[in-house]
Here is the input.
Amino acid sequence: MSRTIDAVVSPTQTNTIPADISGQMLDLDEDDDLEVFSKDLTLADGNMFNASMPTSPGSMVNQCKFEEDEESDSKDIFITVDNPESHVTAIETFITYRVLTKTTRSEFDNSEYEVRRRYQDFLWLKGKLEDAHSTLIVHPLPEKFVVKGMVERFNGDFIETRRKALHKFLNRIADHPILSCSEDFKVFLSAQAWELTTYKKQGPGFLSRMGETVRAVANSVRGVKNRPEEFTAIQEYVEDFSNKIGSLDKVTQRIVKEQKEYLEELKEYGPTYTLWSGSEEELAEQLKGVAGCIERCCKETEEQVGHLSDTLVPVLHEYVLCAETLKAVLRRRDNIQAEFEAKNEALATKKVDRDAESSDLGFVWGSLLGKNPEEARHQRQERLDGEIEELKEEIDKLEDRVEWANNALKGDWGRWQRSMRGDLKSAFLSTAEKNVDYYEKCLAVWETFLLSQRTEPSEETDRDNTP
Amino acid sequence: MLTNNFFSLEISVAEAEKRTGKNTVNMQEIYTVYLIETRPVDALTEGITPDSLWRRYSEFELLRNYLLVTYPFVVVAPLPEKRAEIVWHKLSADNMDPDFVERRRVGLENFLHRVASHPVLCNDNIFNIFLTEVNWKEMVYETGFQAKADSRLKAVNAAFRVKNPDGRFTELKHYSDELQTVLSQLLRVRARVADRLYGVYKVHGNYGRVFSEWSAIEKEMGDGLQSAGHHMDAYAASVDDILEEEEHYADQLKEYLFYTDALRAVCRKHELTQFELEMVALDLACKKQQKEELVTGTVRTFSLKGMTSKLFGQETAEQREAKLQVLEQQLKEGEEAVKEKNTESDEFVKTAWVDIERFKDQKDRDLKEALISYAVMQISMCKKGIQVWTNAKECFNKM
Here is the structure.
């Protein structure tokens, strides 16, 4: 889907990420602000950053429109995550990553930002996005730590894998029509470290979040009663998908393991032929040739395993995490609906209460306190009417909320499925291509050897019938 | 089937069968017998049914032992393994396993072909009888070859004490030790590599299963996934043929691993012969010296007789004369013995070295061919891999 945004988009934008897009900033006045490293970003005042609140559907649609075909040449924000660095303080050691943003969007004051962020900051951003858009599908973050394999947090491979996943995370958000407009996202990309800390402290406090959680738990215990068929279908799909992708993840990791063990043995195999050639005269050349072939195949095998680990394994793992995200999204949608249903039931009960002819206890109390029974009943009616009106208002809001949540999810669901297909297809394609390449290279190695053997006719002696 | 210039019969070990019977300690046992079919070479085109008889592995062993003893200067071809020793996990080490039996059948046929194409061995009467007469055992025992066998102890003793073996044989012994070490190692590593390769291929079979299950819940990706899954299954299954072919290569290497024993046997025989020559020559030298002492009256070597004669008086002239006579006779015999042993040794060295050269040529040819066929196998494996993954790529494209 392409988005049209109120901001100006340069008409000369191309598909490739421009190395320096300052040349395309035709419409901006402040050329002085076009620095490559905008460390001097000054903020007008704290009012620029509004506390993140769930925005009504209406205002969201004004900002971003959905269209059917997504053209990548409308991409107007480019983010890279790189350059991990270790920081040591008295309390802890942690890694920060450089987040580099280049954009033409008008809501950003500058066209380039460079900030450093740590994993916690990414977690914060994810949390904020999920709070604000509980039924949108936010791409997963890499895990906090890898339990199995006992990978050290500061191990090179681990950091690189994490960096790539963080890069993908931010880019997925940037591609998302709704999420990329988020204020929190903007702050994340552009604020300096201390600014971010200040910003983080705003927003709903701990207690209100607790309240939310309690409500959510209560709702989930109650359960949703009339879930629309399509969401049940999605839930079933997600269950199955989760199983399948989990299996694929395991199978692929097993393949990597087996391949590595094969490589280990292969590394011993070649040298044995070399050893043998030392004892032979006529056969020495040939034996060395075979040893050489095996060694070259070793290198190809090493490359192939590396490719598998770098390309297929991370993608499958990502989608294992995605499946969990989807389950959570569906749960949240259910909870929103459950809350709505609960309030409806409360309304019905209240109505029954109000319409009841006699209210035993209230009547008795009223008469004990010396009240006129008619008056007491009238007061009660008024009170209940008031409560009913309040409830009706709340229910209206909740109904809107349910509708918004359902639509958001439906829209995002199609989007997610397309990305999933795209990602997995490309990962498997790449793997298949690499495997073809691997076998082609090994084939060439052995064919060269064979050719060298066949062009030595001096070795071919006339044979009498030999066994 | 083999035909060759030296041998008039075409030989094949056509089948293997299980039999039950009582063994030497009267216990029930199951054993395998092999069908040997023979046919005159010129009967090829006439469709004459071959003669055949059944032989057990132990009978082959007996034949080979006979050949070893009777032709100690020949590098006698080895038999296939009695028990499966260097195997990778899929192959069972069970002697009754049909794959093992089949490979043994091929090995036995190969053994017979080796013997039939050997310029010396092919003419051996017992060999011919082995191929054609059911009751050959009587005849082989009648040759009394078992009595002629050199005792192991004698051979080991000679190996330690021989002074001047032919340098070529010493070199050959070292070579056969080296070859044995390196081929054992090679076969072991190859088996481990095969094991690992098997694992890699077979795990891909799981892709087949999961893709198939996954395709059931997908609309657009379903077809692509399903067919990709089939290719993964094909990939996993392809490893069985690949490794079976490689077993054949391993068997070729194994034959030469076992050949090293035959090489060492020839070297041992040379050492023994040389040692015996040296002993006889030493004995002769001793006797010469004794004669000299007797003639000149000087005692250069200590002997009890010498001492006693000193103590108890000299011998009489007649006694000395008698002794001299004996010595002369012994000297003559000794010289004969030395001449004989020399001839024997020379003859042995000559004929053995001819056969060793023949063996070397055969080995170089065979192993060169084996290495080429190994390369061909690798190429075939790579081609299969290219095909499968290209097909899978097509399917992924359709996802």
Residues 317-397 of chain B form the longest helix (81 residues). Chain B is about 70% helix and 10% strand.
